[in-house]
Amino acid sequence: xxxxxxxxxxxxDRGAAKDDIKRAYRKIxxxxxxxxxPGDKAAEERFKEATEAYEVLADEKRxxxxxxxxxxxxxxxxxxxxxxxxxxxxxxxxxLFGDFGGIFDSFFGGSGGRRRGxxxxxxxxxxxxxxxxxxxxxxxxxxxxxxxxxxxxISCDRCKGAGSEPGSGKKTCPxxxxxxxxxxxxxxxxxxxxxxxxxxxxxxxxxxxxxxxGSGLLKKNQKINVTIPAGVEDGRRIRIPEQGDGxxxxxxxxxxxxxxxxxxxxxFERDGFxxxxxxxxxxxxxxxxxxxxxxxxxxxxxxxxxxxxxxNNKILRLRNEGISHASSGRRGDMYLRILVTIPxxxxxxxxxxxxxxxxxxxxxxxxxxxxxxxxx
Length: 376
Ligand SMILES: [Zn+2]
Ligand SMILES: [Zn+2]
Fold this sequence. Notes:
four-stranded mixed sheet; Helix Hairpins; three-stranded mixed sheet; 25% helix; HSP40/DNAj peptide-binding domain; alpha+beta
């Protein structure tokens, strides 16, 4: 069967906003979800087709690649058909339908565990972890690599994550009698949910592993290198897939989120990809014009010409001296605000010269206010 266009699958037009795509997918997924249509192959196919389309169109990068090159553009980008797309869809699914609360509670076992497929066996995914990483202003501007070290749960090497002491077996779960489900009443309804004791497996370990106590997981410190793209902004979250806690009993690991904190700079301030800094000049330099050497973010110095008659607060632009864009390789600009500084102390020679200047210029002792429009 020929593959249908992703936009056609979700019945949205090519310019559809992210929210519209999400809404369209949600509608199809709710109607065709395998838990709701047991044994209905056509519904399952529709669900899979919509999920695949959604996974591509909800991801900006992959959507772009699809728009440009069609199916060929998104093959091999991970998460595609056959590449575990169905699995990750279920993960996504829960996020997407979280606000459905009660309705989906029972589909997903109600215990908060993330289930895979429609079968009885539930696989729990490990927790996502968060790491706050503080970096310097300059590192954020040009990108950097950082080694981060954090504790995470990994599969126990003694029991290989199974939780049972090597050599010992499994026994029927006493809570659910092996059914993997317990029923609880809520008003008129009786809702089946995954058994909390065995997490839906129906069996529990006979003798818990002596190293991990039966959880199948051990806390270990892990070091990884994180690449921080140039131009990263304060508060940005970088997702590092599968570097979170391992899942219990061999479940898939969670993700690691590195949250970037950018330290402020002594001289530079950022606005998007441009940076601002304030450069002091003397009255004489502003009046006569001057050539200055000003420091840039790179650490080099560039020559800047201040024209004669430069006013206080005048803004000068230095092209391509701002923050780097990681994706395009281009750079923002650097803006210099001129601050005309008035000496707080004068030598007697300077005093004499200034008085002479005042006489030549003629001091205005009844100034007319400056029209505000001139300041803009
Ligand atoms: Zn049980
Ligand atoms: Zn163990």
